[in-house]
């Protein structure tokens, strides 16, 4: 080997050593961060330990949140809401509160039970009917108040609904700490798939499968044959009706691209994980599924639930478009159903409220239309539906911000029978309003009705977190029912950039007297600011202007956001500032 080859080899080895050292440093730093968060979690747990008795209190609807868990009580007319998170622009709040919603009375009760699981979000909860009803909970994450550090749980808890007691199940072999995973009940096992683990410096996505036996209370890692899904989080995981396996659909993952820029991927593939053989010799097999029908557009952050007659439900979500390190999201409020037995997707079509006369005309002799007939109308009605109508509603929050919400009014069904057409407006579908577009909402099904709670959507750089509750009868498919309306007073957003601008404007107003003088001073200051900023050159395109002045605007963003802000966030804000200035000059 020549000298040149030896030098190249030394360079490669040197680069490998440097990378190994960096990985070691990152690992140590991540470990220290998790230790710091573990200490904070321990403080919260010490406060929870002071609770010695169960206290149940009637209360208003829970505060706005996302990434909580919403489950149907196995025996009572109740829904169970646990945990979640809320971000107000400056601070991240995590919850471990427990609420019960009474379906019949439309009332909420907060239940304070001693020794609950620590605060968390993006966990998974599964209800089983055994022993008077149990709520099993695994994993999730805790975030520092500034949202920069994360702690991922790998603990397993059970809430005994008959005795109102929490119990932590401490057994070896549990999956590694993670959030965004999925967990379902399949026969007498809790199956856990995927998820991710993130620190301030690194992240990893999983595609492993673990099983927890509800009989032996033991964990085991499955080793399925065949080609399964790539690593991902936030997918749809649904048990097959016969309990022989689970369906995995979609999800989200990200990788580090050039210059450590994170690149996200929205998955839209589908897989079947099926068990074969007896319990002693149980084997698992992955296989790819190619569903038919009208597939939902690619998205992440969708809500999922299991409806009657072996159907999986998918609501809402967001599709993030990443271009030149900027992130823009299109939020959805549509509902799709997946028939697991037929491997077929179809969009849900709401029929609207019909008159009594029309119901009798469409009904069978001697009884109502059966459930199977209703399913056919859902699938076939899609082609006969008129286009949806977009309605824009403005809500003024407590801080004066005008929040614009786009809602979709479902189209009316076109009737084929001439007799029904003659009925005119009497037989027409009622105009209905659906939940606004959102992601990371909580969903569950009880008594054939889909319940949807909370979630979030974004307008520009501002995040709106919701606490409304909707209900849809999956047998009738007629209309969404609003059980809890969104309260504008619960909307809080604290933004460093806007706050600093408001403060500066307030100081100027105090220094100047009279409305005319204020306007003149504002105009003069605006002109002065424009003179200070790099000017837009004649005929210069936005991309060229951003590239030429990038360092300046990143510096402005850093001055506004402070030294603790992440470089990636500062760069995004700087690019946005450059765009705003450029457009103002046109």
Automatic annotation (TrEMBL):
Basic residues: compositionally biased ranges: 1-10
Compositional bias (Acidic residues): 414-426, 493-532
Compositional bias of kind Basic and acidic residues: 11-25
Cited Pfam families: Kelch_KLHDC2_KLHL20_DRC7
InterPro entries with a match to the protein in the record: Kelch-typ_b-propeller (IPR015915), Kelch_domain_protein (IPR052588)
Highest taxon in the source lineage: Eukaryota
Chain segments carrying region Disordered: 1-34, 356-388, 410-429, 492-568
PANTHER family hit by this protein: KELCH DOMAIN-CONTAINING PROTEIN (PTHR46063), KELCH DOMAIN-CONTAINING PROTEIN 4 (PTHR46063:SF1)
Name this protein carries in UniProt: Kelch domain containing 4
